[in-house]
Amino acid sequence: MQLSLTIDGKKYVVDVEVIEGEEVRMPASFPQPVSTIQSRNPEPPPAARPQPAKPVADNLPDEKVCRSPIAGIVNRVNVQVGQKLQVNDLLVVLEAMKMETNITAHTAGTVKAILATPGEAVKSGQALIEFE
């Protein structure tokens, strides 16, 4: 049996073998077979939604931005815009490989913008907090 899957706009055809004597169950949320979908009037794919613009902090000097030292998921943001900070105040908690990493302020200042939200995946070097 062949299945056709589309992941991130790229189509894959997968051969699936059904082992004799085993019952095959499809979850209710499983999409219908491709042949059924193709027999309907196809609708054009929805237009890509524009992503909300985030402040550009890539060209700011390092003393004005706190960057992620690792790739991970933002677990908590412990500051608010306008908050005054001292060196080593806790800014963000990242989770990577089931371990939490505390990101602290490397300089005293005031939070100008928060560039990451809880649950967001961030890359190493990505700006998390902008200082005034």
From TrEMBL:
Coiled coil: none annotated. InterPro entries: Biotin_BS, Biotin_Carboxyl_Carrier/Decarb, Biotin_lipoyl, Single_hybrid_motif. Keywords: Biotin. Pfam families: Biotin_lipoyl. The keyword DNA-binding does not apply. Residues 42-53 have a biased composition (Pro residues). Residues 55-132 form the Lipoyl-binding domain. SUPFAM superfamilies: Single hybrid motif. PANTHER family: OXALOACETATE DECARBOXYLASE ALPHA CHAIN. This is Acetyl-CoA carboxylase biotin carboxyl carrier protein subunit. It comes from Chlorobaculum limnaeum.
